[in-house]
Amino acid sequence: MKLLIVESPAKAKKIQSLLGRGWTVRACLGHVRDLPARKEDLPEKHCALPWARLGVNVEDNYAPLYVIREGKHKTIQDLKAAAKGAEQVLLASDPDREGESIAWHLAVLLGLGKEAQRVTYQEITQSALRQAVAHPRPIDYHLVGAQETRRVLDRLAGYGVSPLLWSAVGGNQSAGRVQSAALMLLSQREQSRLAFVPASYWRVTVGVDSCPPFRATVVALRDVPLATAASFTPQGELKPDVQVVQLDAGKAEQLKAYLERQWGVVQAVEVTPVTRKPPAPFTTSTLQQAANARLKLGAATVTKLAQALYENGFITYIRTDSPSLSEEAQTLAREAIQGRFGPTALPEKARQYATRSANAQEAHEAIRPAGKFLIPEDAGLSGDELALYRLIYDRTLASQMRDATGEKTSITLKAGQVTLHASGTRLIEKGFTVLYDDQEADEDEQALPRVQVGESFALRDARAEEKRSSAPARYTEGKFVQLMERAGIGRPSTYGSTLDTLQKRGYVTVRQRQLHVTPLGLLIAGYLMRQVPQLVDTTFTAQMERDLDRIAEGELTRTQYLDGVWKGNLAPAIERAGRTPPRVQVPHLDAVFEVRAGQVQVRAQGRSVPLPEGLLPEDLTEKTLADVLNGTFKGKRIKREASTKGKAPRKTRRTAGSSGKASARKGARSP
DNA sequence: CAGTGAGCGAGCTTCCGCTTGACTT
Fold first, then answer.
1. Helix/strand/coil (H/E/C) assignment for every residue in A245-266
2. Partners and quaternary state (predicted)?
3. Host H or E run for residue A438
4. Which of A305, A375, A405, A590 suits A490 as a labelling partner, its CA being 20 to 30 A distant?
């Protein structure tokens, strides 16, 4: 009997059926050993050591101390038992940095020594597996070293910086390479929104009486462009060097009246062909984004639904950064397309997609229907599960369909000294869009008639509306996950939990599916930016990845890298950092957020008062600020039952989770 | 004399990334 160890139980089941007799396939469920989270997790002889809290001996070449993870003792015992009777043990954890590390930890725990045999494969088919198990290789210790370096750096940074926040702010605050960079991105967006001053401009449109009619927009007067949102700075001022006409209500009204008496003469018609390519199959981040936008589902819900679909064999693995499809999947997708839309819907060759994110490890393929590509209606699913499966199914098929082609028409008209413009796109070959249209509807897009230069049409029904330039939008969870991926912050398995952490700490909250930064979040980000700017720098991770690659190649050692980043950079910054409570200017008001005695307060007019719970920076206006200062603030959140409800269980949970003393006290108090 | 309360001190919090259930609410 030969033993093959993989990470996921669902995968183990599938591989077991493919390899058949003579093989035992078991799952280790991810990492089995890790640095100790707390002192108590350490073996007794190490408890007194000065680096016990860290679990890393910086002075001994950053030697890590590993313990078996909570809840993994039984898994290890079972694997040990299985390995004992096996003639051969193959370590088949995922083909990436973390997977290599898992293989090494397993080799140590199972006592396989230097002879440990590692296998990897890119797809789960009989031929790929037979090929893989026939050619095991030794563990790649350079790659393991790269993972260990990543782990040690994250521990040093996280456990090094978090205590700064405990002394400056209090409570169980946290900071880390990923969560703090993410918080910084959100905080910057929030700040620029708060500081944003909208500018007003006018948009004048008029109906063109052609057949069929269409609407044209005034773009210039006497060849000087009309101001649009793009003409203004975020401070609401006209951009320098911009020559535009700014209308006011009166002028807009005059223009409106003028246009309705005029004829529009076609000055130019431009027709350009357009081609739209289908979007790539889903990765973790693009699935989150699409499900968030189309199905209005939050990140946690999508993960839960997708996990269930995966476990029941409907879709492939859900934590992936690769958009590529295996050959088997391409064939199945093409067959499904042909069956439903006929052979003309297929391009000659299957499309292959490559990742666009810099740090992709591509250990798995895209998220797609698994097995035989069950048609959604026949899958026996319902509700959100069905909706999500259909989304994945349609996107996968669409990715293998023909491009959509058509033409974009752009018409310029003149009415006296007024220049008008209209544009519209018409798809001729609908291609993949019959199944999955990823274009957001644009209000200016319309079907345009064929017109000739020199033709003139009556103008009627002119409308003038005042518009305001708008601040950069908040991120939805989906959009933010995409941003994290693009910036290389975090991994597919952690995008969701990073958002959870930021919410649990009270730095970020979700309102109407959008991510808002709380006053505490702004304070934490402000403090970190001042004291440890390295940590919130979004390029920090990108540079780390490059260095880890060099470690994996054997061009750099762990000690060299960590000496530079830790001893030479982060550690001195932590040493220097001030412990004074942070303050942040409220961008849109004459006030500051500050921390006093561990409480978030707002200071204005020489007074400082605690902020009501649940109050977000955007809720603060001249009026609400005055109410807060006078103690007359009546936020609905304070009186609402929900807020007290939400608080109580958190407290009980904390009591229950803390030491035995606390529960004894609790027991004594109860009748 | 018993019970209460202020004040003090000690101990705790925390990272990222890989996997699922087994638990509540």
1. ECCCHHHHHHHHHHHHCCEEEE
2. Monomer.
3. none
4. A305
DSSP structure class, residue A567: I
Show the tokens assigned to A46: 């190490």
| B16 C1' to A656 CA distance, Å | 27
A81 by DSSP, 3-state: which?
Answer: helix
- Give domain status of residue A486, yes or no: yes
CATH number, residue A344: 1.10.290.10
Tell whether A2 is covered by a domain.
no
In this structure, which amino acid lies at residue A334? Answer: R
Query: Which residue is nearest nucleotide B15, judged by alpha carbon to C1' distance?
Result: A158
> Partners of A275 in the beta sheet?
A405
Which bases along strand B come within 7 Å of a protein CB atom?
A: 12-21, 25
Verify that A254 and A161 share a domain, yes or no. Answer: no
Count up the domains in chain A and report the number: 3
What does the pLDDT look like over A514-570, one tens digit per residue? 999 999 999 999 999 999 999 999 899 999 999 999 999 999 999 999 999 999 999
How far is A132 from A135, CA to CA, in rounded Å? Answer: 5
pTM: 0.87
Q: Quick check: helix, strand or coil at residue A389?
A: helix
- What parts of chain A have a pLDDT lower than 70? 358, 440-444, 635-671
Q: Tell me if residue A436 is catalytic.
A: no
Range of the domain at A570: 148-195+474-630
Q: Which of A317, A475, A507, A527 is flagged as catalytic? A: A317
